[in-house]
Design goal:
The protein is an alpha/beta fold and 356 residues long. The chain has two domains: 169 residues, 3-Layer(aba) Sandwich (Rossmann fold), CATH 3.40.50; 156 residues, 3-Layer(aba) Sandwich (Rossmann fold). The chain contains 15 helices and twelve strands. The strands form two sheets. The protein has a seven-stranded parallel sheet with strand order 1-7-6-5-4-2-3, sandwiched between helices. Strand 10, helix 11 and strand 11 form a beta-alpha-beta unit. Helix 3 runs parallel beside helix 4 and helix 11 crosses helix 14.
Amino acid sequence: MEHLWCTSGINIQGTFQLKNSLHILYIGVENGTCLDRANALRRLGHDVTILDTRLLLPQSLWIDRITWKLGGHLLAPLLKRPLTKALQGTHFDVCLVDSGEHEPPSIVEILRKHSNKVINYNIDDPTGPRDGPRFEAYRRSLPYYDLVAVVREENVAEAKNLGAKKVIRVWRSADEVMHAPREITKELHAKWGSDVLFLGTWMPERGSLLQALIEKGINITIRGEHWHKAKEWPILKPYWKGASVHGDDYAYAIQCAKVCIGLVSKGNRDLHTTRSLEIPALGGLLCAERTSEHLVMYNDGIEVLLWSNVDECAEKCRYALEDESRRQKIAEAGHLRYLSNRHANQDIMDALLNNI
């Protein structure tokens, strides 16, 4: 088992720098953090071709329902012909499959015909219990990849048990460009300013925590999807300011918040999330659940604020809100620690390539 944990004294870029530009086929969606990672490879000097296999399948909601409820491996007969046609006459040094929910062994074999090496990177919990059939194609294909990269300890052993030949564990990452701090004007601060911000999708355990914070007098701003499903919705609704935000708006929301709450997904067995990197990367003050990985990443009380229950969370929020200079000092220290940890896309993508 190999680790690429970027802690003090460890250079995540490995023992050498790639000297030549690689021709890389990137299998993934051309938006969001997936596109960020592809662009990071381009910034490293590689020639990257993005191919979204979902776009080669029928554009019907039923395709997504089949993937989530039954498994993407069932869609291979619909994908083989258009994928073969799309790749005709091409050859790549490396094929990087981001996620792999639509790539069972027969599809990975097609990718292998057009690439010297095929690797997989997945920041979800594809061998865990929460998403079930969604990642059946991924699990079946693990023996066919030259390298598999995962983000949690449990995934390493589980991938090995499913036949993966080489597994490395990496940190999640923020992006050097998309999560670089923006200039904030008075107008932007007036629009996006908040005391305590939570950016994220509703999950059953999250509603009760945010309700408790509200009842303890914390002025919460909530942005994200599906919050109307929360049983606490009548109380949360006045604090909900809209659905997910992206790009510059995402940066503005974090930079204009005095405190940013970081919650991990219990169902996904998370001990850190992409928010754990993106908030400090943007210069925001991270106030997150106290986990073993957050304690490795940051110094509690100096670079971030960590808590173990709702009472402590409310206490830490008040501690930050009552003193602007202290709040800014912690946020600045967290940003510097993020930079020194090198938890950024170019570092992680470079590490993957160096490992093949």
